[in-house]
């Protein structure tokens, strides 16, 4: 039954297409079968538009995240650089402190060696004088 209606519609369309005044109208106006395609195309265009909006929003979000990441990376680099400089200055201070402590220790060692030598000399002198007295 549907085929009969379609055949009649096709014949009518052909006869109308032969008339010069109606040809442009038939070319523009969609038939029943074409209307669903037009609706589908409209839905597809709408979905495409929404997808484009989502894509743009995602791109903006990613660019913002990238900028945040770059700022965070720059901040981290600056923090690491300041920590490195602080540790280098601390190391230099410790090296100077160690050198000073080493010099002070050497001086104390030399004084102790001198005092020990004096004490040994005094002890030896006392022993000799004690031996002289006991004789």
Helix-strand string = HHH
- Poorly predicted ranges: 22-30
Task: Indicate the percent of residues in helices.
Answer: over 70%
Outline: rod-shaped
Provide an overview of this structure.
Mean pLDDT is 79; it is low at 22-30. It is rod-shaped, with a radius of gyration of 52 Å. The chain is built from three helices and no strands. The longest helix is centred in the middle third of the chain and has 103 residues, at 32-134. The chain has 135 residues and is mainly α. The protein has helices at residues 2-18, 23-28, 32-134.
Q: What's the topology here?
A:
Elements: H1 2-18, H2 23-28, H3 32-134
How would you briefly describe this protein structure?
With 135 residues, this protein is mainly alpha-helical.
Brief descriptors of the model:
3 helices, 93% helix, 135 residues, mainly alpha
């Amino acid at each position: 039954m549907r085929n009969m209606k379609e055949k009649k519609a096709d014949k009518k369309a052909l006869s109308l297409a032969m008339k010069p005044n109606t040809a442009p109208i038939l070319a523009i106006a969609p038939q029943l079968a074409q209307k669903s395609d037009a609706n589908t195309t409209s839905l597809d265009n709408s979905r495409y538009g929404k997808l484009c909006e989502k894509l743009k929003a995602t791109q903006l979000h990613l660019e913002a995240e990238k900028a945040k990441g770059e700022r965070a990376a720059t901040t981290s680099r600056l923090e690491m650089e300041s920590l490195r400089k602080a540790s280098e200055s601390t190391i230099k201070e410790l090296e100077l402190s160690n050198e000073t402590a080493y010099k002070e220790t050497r001086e104390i060692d030399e004084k102790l060696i001198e005092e020990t030598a004096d004490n040994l000399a005094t002890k030896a002198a006392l022993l000799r004088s004690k031996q002289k007295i006991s004789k």
